[in-house]
Inverse folding.
């Protein structure tokens, strides 16, 4: 999900100090993927790129550590810290499969992202998801939303099939005719859907 | 009942341990306890216990009290008659001047009886030998206890205790260093794990390895993506968010 492009591209372009953080939502993990845990995971990734760890975080950690053996941050606190840290560097936040996040959390997350962008307008947010969440995303504005519709490109499918065939663990069972047929039929079928 | 004694010119109060309100499940020990079960490293109400004992059963009441922790059987001082099903762990904390007691959910009348007896024992011991027994402990006073144990030869006639318990004081001594407020947080990973225990890098790695080069690259060349990416650098008017929508399986996750 563009993370490698963003992270590596920054180095090539000679850009300094780019922070990239990502989160992959998953239906199966909805329980632990709450709004707060997702944002704190982003925060963790951004903090891990900082040396030394910003004092404000160390301070909060010292305080929270003494409470129930390490009380975690709440959504608003995370949001505030994320907002202030994002304005220090060019920050890319990438969220995969937003539609797989629980609906209640989704609203909270979008709301928080909106706040973060407001605090730090240079923050860039990359979101993927099924089209039905696009109106939710647009509703929260998030500093302006550009929508791109992703559909399988024929060239991608062909490239994918070729690669998979090249990695075929039992190449003896494959002949040229079958290979050609696979390469023809599958992209056709995909473009029909 | 509150006892007041003088120990090393310091005025100390001995307050009978508070009772049922301090039940911490981790410390409830239903069966014959050893000190190892009292490893008191978990903080309670924001207060970290002063020491931790890692091994052995402490057989002597005085020592039990000296270490600041131990198990007492309700209504009985003698360990050897260990048929009673309920035990209490006592832990001294550095921040509060009084020991607090963690008790298993014993019937109230039983606790009451025990605590009175406990306090009475205390009183007797204090007056007899001015041992540093169960008084509020500072790191120094505990060290003193350790020393006095050495000098009085207490360790010799109580080898059983010693054999199992040499760790007790070692642990305590090292622990002392951590109690002070000057502990330096230099452990990045501790802070990072506290921020979030989740590991998105694993999932990313997983996807990275299954990705096929240059599939989905067209997106990176689109005007929308490029202006989104370069935006924010100089020009804040650009859209801050890009939303890639598509049906399941079209490859949204696998864009490089």
């Amino acid at each position: 999900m563009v993370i490698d492009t963003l992270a590596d591209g920054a180095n090539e372009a000679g850009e300094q100090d780019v922070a990239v953080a990502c989160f992959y939502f998953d239906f199966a993990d909805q329980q632990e993927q709450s709004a707060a845990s997702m944002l704190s995971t982003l925060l963790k990734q951004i903090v891990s790129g900082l040396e030394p760890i910003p004092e404000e975080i160390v301070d909060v950690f010292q305080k929270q550590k003494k409470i129930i053996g390490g009380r975690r941050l709440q959504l608003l606190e995370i949001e505030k810290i994320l907002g202030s840290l994002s304005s220090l560097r060019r920050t890319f936040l990438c969220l995969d499969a937003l539609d797989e996040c629980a609906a209640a959390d989704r609203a909270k997350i979008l709301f928080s992202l909106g706040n973060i962008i407001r605090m730090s307008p240079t923050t860039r947010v990359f979101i993927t998801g099924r089209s039905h969440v696009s109106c939710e995303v647009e509703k929260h504005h998030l500093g302006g939303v550009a929508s791109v519709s992703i559909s399988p490109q024929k060239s991608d499918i062909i490239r994918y099939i070729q690669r998979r065939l090249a990695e075929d663990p039992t190449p003896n069972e494959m002949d040229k005719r079958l290979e050609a047929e696979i390469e023809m039929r599958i992209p056709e079928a995909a473009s029909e859907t | 009942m509150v006892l007041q004694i003088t120990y090393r010119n310091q005025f100390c109060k001995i307050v009978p341990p508070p009772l049922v309100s301090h039940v911490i499940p981790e410390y409830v020990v239903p069966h014959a306890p050893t000190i190892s079960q009292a490893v008191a490293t978990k903080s309670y109400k924001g207060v970290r216990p002063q020491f931790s004992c890692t091994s052995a059963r402490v057989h002597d009441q005085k020592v039990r009290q000296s270490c600041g922790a131990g198990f007492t059987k309700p209504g009985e001082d003698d360990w050897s008659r260990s048929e009673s099903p309920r035990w209490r762990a006592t832990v001294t904390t550095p921040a509060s001047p009084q020991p607090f007691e963690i008790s298993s959910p014993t019937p109230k009348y039983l606790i009451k009886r025990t605590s009175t007896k406990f306090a009475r024992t205390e009183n007797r011991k204090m007056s007899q030998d001015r041992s540093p027994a169960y008084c509020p402990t500072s790191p120094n006073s505990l060290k003193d206890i350790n020393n006095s144990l050495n000098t009085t030869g207490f360790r010799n006639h109580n080898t059983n205790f010693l054999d199992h318990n040499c760790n007790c004081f070692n642990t305590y001594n090292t622990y002392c260093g951590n109690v002070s407020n000057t502990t330096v947080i230099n452990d990045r990973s501790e802070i990072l794990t506290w921020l979030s225990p989740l590991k998105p890098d694993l999932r990313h790695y997983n996807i990275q390895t299954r990705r096929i080069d240059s599939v989905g690259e067209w997106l990176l060349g689109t005007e929308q993506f490029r202006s989104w990416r370069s935006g924010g650098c100089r020009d804040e008017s650009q859209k801050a968010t890009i939303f890639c929508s598509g049906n399941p399986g079209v490859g949204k996750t696998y864009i490089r």
